[in-house]
Amino acid sequence: MGLFRKIVNQTRKPEGFLGKMMLSGMNSGHVGMADWGFSHLPAIAAERAVDLGCGGGRNAGVLLKQYPKAHVTAIDYSDLSVEKAKAYNQAAIVEGRCAVQQGDVSDLHLPAGAFDLATAFETVYFWPGLEKCALRR
Ligand SMILES: C[S@@+](CC[C@H](N)C(=O)[O-])C[C@H]1O[C@@H](n2cnc3c(N)ncnc32)[C@H](O)[C@@H]1O
Q1: What is the C-alpha separation between 60 and 93, in angstroms, rounded?
Q2: Helix (H), strand (E) counts: the chain
Q3: Which residue among 39, 49, 58, 72 is least enclosed by CB atoms within 10 Å?
Q4: How far is the CA of 53 from the centre of ligand 1 (A)?
Q5: What residue ranges do the domains of the chain occupy?
Q6: Where are the beta strands (DSSP E) in the chain?
Q7: Does the CB atom of residue 19 touch ligand 1 within 6 A?
Q8: Class in CATH terms, 3-132
């Protein structure tokens, strides 16, 4: 596989050295689009929020700020994303306000009604079909 393809593939499932670099880049490079999305979220009193395909965890961190009473779960299937998102949100994890879990969004076994807010930034195009993914009803 050529270097360009290897780099592009890190956006799908970050791993290894290139994945580490990609995750740092995503946390800063996705800010503009993510914050535009956040500006459209409803002003609800969310108690349990989830960020799916969380990458480096920056957007879970924004959810923690935007919904200060909420517990935020961040989920990703990449080991490296989970590691980075945990490091990024370490303080909130220690406070008991955040959990980072490894999981494939196409095979999550979350109870119905577990969250009152779910976000997914720059990730759904990697998922194997939206109907199959995320929260079961
Ligand atoms: C381009 S990154 C975006 C990361 C983050 N949402 C952001 O905006 O910076 C895509 C992320 O989605 C994750 N991802 C892709 N398919 C997934 C799946 N089926 N289940 C869980 N995570 C997935 C990847 O591991 C990667 O961390």
Answers
A1: 11
A2: 6, 4
A3: 39
A4: 4
A5: 3-132
A6: 48-52, 71-76, 98-102, 117-119
A7: no
A8: alpha beta
Q: Measured from the CB, is residue 26 less than 6 Å from ligand 1?
A: yes
Ligand 1 atom at minimum distance from 11 CA? 1
Chain segment 16-29, per-residue pLDDT in tens? 999 898 888 888 88
Strands 48-52, 98-102: pairing is unpaired
The pair of three-digit structure tokens given for residue 4, joined into one six-digit string = 């360009």
At a CB cut-off of 8 Å and minimum separation 6, what does 17 contact? none
* Interatomic CA distance for residues 116 and 101, integer angstroms: 18
Give yes or no for a contact between 112 and 135, defined as CB atoms under 8 angstroms apart.
yes
Predicted confidence (pLDDT) per residue in 99-125, tens digit: 999 999 999 888 888 999 999 999 999
